[in-house]
């Protein structure tokens, strides 16, 4: 399953940090963060609950970029 989320991030480098953090999250098959459109596209592993996984993605992204936001 794939979903798109609106994000708020200050720079392209921060967006790259968010993408890396999201990709390392359990339950995420792939993630792409686009700084220009302020969107995060996440593909979830089979059988994963997107809501639960995205809570962890948000926490992981906050660890690498404290002022970022993902609108769930």
Describe the structure.
This protein is an alpha+beta fold. It has a domain at 1-47: Alpha-Beta Plaits. 38% of the residues lie in helices and 32% in strands. The protein contains two helices and four strands. The chain has helices spanning 12-23, 50-64, and strands at residues 2-8, 28-34, 39-44, 69-71. A four-stranded antiparallel sheet has the order 2-3-1-4. Helix 1 crosses helix 2 (50-64). The longest helix has 15 residues, at 50-64. The model has no long low-confidence stretch (mean pLDDT 97).
Question: What does the secondary structure layout of this molecule look like, with pairings?
Answer:
Elements: E1 2-8, H1 12-23, E2 28-34, E3 39-44, H2 50-64, E4 69-71
Antiparallel strand pairs: 1-3, 1-4, 2-3
Question: Which stretches are low in confidence, meaning pLDDT under 50 for 5 or more residues running?
Answer: none
The backbone outline, from C-alpha atoms, is: globular
- The strand count comes to 4
Mean pLDDT: 97
Structural class: alpha+beta
Write the H/E string, N to C. Answer: EHEEHE
- Tell me the major beta sheet: 4 strands, antiparallel
CATH topology label of the domain at 1-47: Alpha-Beta Plaits
Please count the helical segments: 2
CATH architecture of the domain at 1-47: 2-Layer Sandwich
Strand residue percentage: 25-35%
Taking the alpha carbons of the first and last residues, their distance comes to 16 Å
**CATH uppermost class of the domain at 1-47:** Alpha Beta
Instruction: Indicate the radius of gyration in whole angstroms.
Output: 11 Å
Largest sheet, order of strands side by side?
A: 2-3-1-4
Helical amount: 25-40%
């Amino acid at each position: 399953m794939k979903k798109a989320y609106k994000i708020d991030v200050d720079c392209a480098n921060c967006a790259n940090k968010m993408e890396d953090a999201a990709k390392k999250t359990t339950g995420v098959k792939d993630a792409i963060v686009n700084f220009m459109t302020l969107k995060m596209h996440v593909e979830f592993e089979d059988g994963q609950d997107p809501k639960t996984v995205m809570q962890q993605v948000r926490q992981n992204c906050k660890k690498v970029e404290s002022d970022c936001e993902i609108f769930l």
